[in-house]
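Good day; I would like, with your permission, to put a structural problem before you. What I wish to show you is a protein chain and, alongside it, a tokenised description of its three-dimensional fold. Please examine both parts with care and let me know of anything in them that strikes you as inconsistent. Thank you for your consideration; the sequence and its tokens are set out here:

***
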Amino acid sequence: HSSVKYELVQAGWAKCWSRRENRPYYFNRFTNQSLWEVPVLGQHDVISDPLGLNAAPAEGGDSNLGNGGQRKRQSSEEQGAGPNSFKRAKVNLSLLVEPTTPISPSTPGGKPWSAAPEEKQTPATPTTPSPAPVPYRPAVVYWDLDIQTNAVIRERRPANHLPPHPEIELQRAQLVTKLRQHYHELCHQREGIDPPRESFNRWLLERKVIDKGHDPLLPSDCDPVISPSMFREVMNDIPIRLSRIKYKEEARKLLFKYAEAAKKMIDSRNASPESRKVVKWNAEDTMSWLRRDHSASKEDYMDRLEHLRQQCGPHVAAVAKDSVEGICSKIYQLSAEYSRRLRQTHLSLLQDPPTEACASPPQSRLVYCYPVRLTLPSPPLPRVELHFENDMACLRFRGEMVKVNRGHFSKLELLYRYSCIDDPRFEKFLSRVWCLLKRYQVMFGSGANEGTGLQGALPVPVFEALNRQFGVSFECFASPLNCYFKQFCSAFPDIDGFFGSRGPFLSFGPVSGSFEANPPFCEELMDAMVTHFEDLLDHSTEPLSFIVFVPEWRDPVTPALTRMEGSRFLRHQMSVPAYEHEYRSGSQHICKREDMYYRAVHGTAVLFLQNEAGFAKWGPTPERLAELTAAYRPSSSRSSSLSSPGPAHVAPADRDSWVGLPLWPHPSPFGLLFHVPLFDLYLSCLFRLSLTSTCSTSVTS
């Protein structure tokens, strides 16, 4: 009986209690099936018998499984990355036990949310296996929550994070907004510049790499205090921000403004006599040249600007250094103070304040990865209102409303059903969704399209190819909003854990599995990621594979890319050219369908880091790479609606400054790129051919 029970648990079954019927029932968290009788292995589940060889013939024929019936389960070859395939690995299977307790819904197979009263159905008596109904079926699905994990970890203790609460999340949002305003004011008052775009968001990312504080968003315990990321970005905009130049007059104006700002800064700061002399002489010489020469080209102005930066830059940076360090230090100190204030308020809301517990020794038992669990029980949460506006779900708490499209709201419900174990009746679901959406809204910022690059995701065909060809079943950098698999690592374990997160990747230690990594483009985070990759690959003898997607920045090259290219674990590297591939928008949970994808304005490097066992199992063979490359090609159905920054929005008068770049980045129906001179030549040839054909016809007649 113990072996049968073990197999049932591995197949996703759990014995639950029905309050409505006052009797036990059996629930499968993988397929959402509910049965009154004891399940029979191979008859009711697809985990222990994926091919259905031992299954009794179903009376109702085939049916969709899992994910609310949105997708049919794929073939066993496509599911080779699931737990079943791991049985062929070297890990002792007697140690592989899923230490989680599946949730038990108040009504087996019922749906907690309805779009309209008339859609409510009476729950059917669960006597035959059937897929659970869903409240809303999206027209397009950007995820596959049926895929099971092949990621194996060592069992870990529950986390000590404070459970999320809407009151605290609202205060955190207000304090982060206030901190952003302080940063803006300090840059204006001390340096006379606007803060570099999204530099605050990158500061949050860079600080959390080394932060040892308690708050999930606000840094409070970092060493060093001065952020290299914020310091570097502010210094790059001193004395003025250098924008992208398109026209000759813009180049002339920018050169004059730089010379004037450098001279003004050196006069108003405590500079050495030598620095003052060098900067003033170069600035005055530049202004004199601008007054004399009115026939210079755009390239002449740009060369002069580069020379001026080389001569004045070091002296300007020297006088601005203390002031910029003061900005970084002040923002960090305010963040630490806000974090301390928030924690005190948060602790006062808890029924059982945390106590200092003795650290128990780490567990050595191997298990399939499971979502983050919290040590502290969640207190009663206040009511959050829900209503629908067209295709958007709107959640309101104390006048603060957050929105998510109905497709992603349905996705969050499924993730919550799969992952949450402390809320079987979904009583805290809306409060936790509000906290989740508010957290990511605050992290993104309030500017137009701000922060969406932090959450950009790979296209669905690429994920499908990664899973089918390389056994990928896990995302190292994702969120409940943009994840493709239901197992992923994310930034906020305290709230994301209820929706399937395994915690931050830098504290996640897999022993085996195949992983996809598409990190936010923050240099410090990417560098820490490479260090973690090499440490994991070096200490595991089980199959372990990381397929990494990073921007191919070469001028200057990023340290993370250089390290991966020189790593002894690098098995293959491929490059996807700029404008020939796309990403899913980071705001996919609120954007319109036509804005879901955007062209990448830079090349993407794809690197395969694998240990020996991982290379033997998921090695990048030519056939696998060919399918991955084909999956990266943008779909023709989306090509007309893709938005692309850069050359796609160049004014007609400036086409000469974009020689060699296509006016539209996607392939034309004629098989060439719509470059204007080429297109004119093509039309000219067509006209001559038609004219020749007409003449020939008339002569013949």
The longest strand covers residues 510-517. The longest helix spans residues 298-349. DSSP finds 17 helices and 15 strands in the chain. Residues 370-632 form a domain with the Rossmann fold fold (CATH 3.40.50).
